[in-house]
Here is the input.
Amino acid sequence: MMFVSLQQKQNGLTLIELLIAMLLGTLMILGATSMFTANKRVYKEVDYQGRLAENARFAMEMIIRDLRMTGFIGCAIQQEVSNDLNVRAGALPDPTQLLSFISRTDATNQTNSIEGSESGGAWQPSGSTDASLGGTAVIAADTSVANFGNPVTVTMLNTSDGFTVRFLEDTNTNLCASMANVTDALSVQAQSGATIAGGTFLGGGVYAAADCEATNIFQLNTNQPGAGTPVTFTLAHSTGATIPPGNLTGNLSKQYTVADATNCSASPVDIMIFRARRYFVGQDQDGSPGLYRQIFDTDPNNTPPLQYREFAERLIDGVENMQILYGEDTTGNRVPNAYLAANAVANWANVVSVKLALLFATVDEDFSAPFDTTIYQLLDAAPFDPTPAADDRRRRKIVEATVSLRNRQLSIN
Here is the structure.
């Protein structure tokens, strides 16, 4: 008996079946590609927004901290600071110099613990032309690709404002031995529980001794790594410093003393670092805007060994504009009655708060995003177009803050 199998062998796909399979495969690939593209776009958006937020957070934290420290001189808030640095215009302090600290307004000069520049102009109230257009050149490190690190000069943009703050910052050290006279070096040690870094006291640095009766600013003559147990730093402040500006007389305004040399932490005399900082918006040699800070410090771009000098450091890329208003108290209650531009403030001793707005932009363009055609409004300034020549595809964000000058709240006459 013969059995015939009805099973047919597979001979391949029909054209219709092949077309259907290709169509399904194409749809799956398109779906996966679309999902990948969407995820990449979301990632880029989150990345750009994250970078903007991080830059804004870093810049605002630094700015707000320095503004809150404005005018801090320790507890001698009713006394004028004695500044022995050789920053004079004749016999009087020269308020235009960065290291000139005039803590109180008198018949000759207004206090310069805070200053402002309107649209890149001279600093008010001192009239300093540091980094202003056509003014005094400020050295900075080139951040352009071709010449990175080379010394160049930088100036403020005339579309943006700037501010200067001066204050003292604690070193966590105290005077531990009484001075025999006003020319004596200061013998200081760390406060209880504090550890002092080896580079805290470098020759050429500007420091201050302060108690509740007097504050004296001076320049340290030589490096002081510390010696002995406990570690003691000997801070000499004589004339003849090799790093400008040097000390004018080498004398302090008083002979500081301590009641108990065995209990340094109980000493009433604190040793502080003098900080003077100008914040402004400038451009590097590639034409890229950024936030700069002019300081007197050790310049890491200078040839070793580290040496103090005035220079501007670039803090944040992509800061395109900064607008500032100063809260002036005209009634004596330490509450601002009006917020004014720098060139409209009548008495800088009455500035008790600051309102500021910064425009941040991403460093790179997102070519998948639309052109940014927005005209930005920062405080009461004229509308600002960050790309007047041609629109670009950068993300941008305005961040605002109002900061109370805490030490101005305390210094009531």
In short: Residues 373 and 387 are 8 Å apart (CA to CA). Residues 15-68 form the longest helix (54 residues). The chain has two helices and 19 strands. Helices lie at 15-68, 406-410.
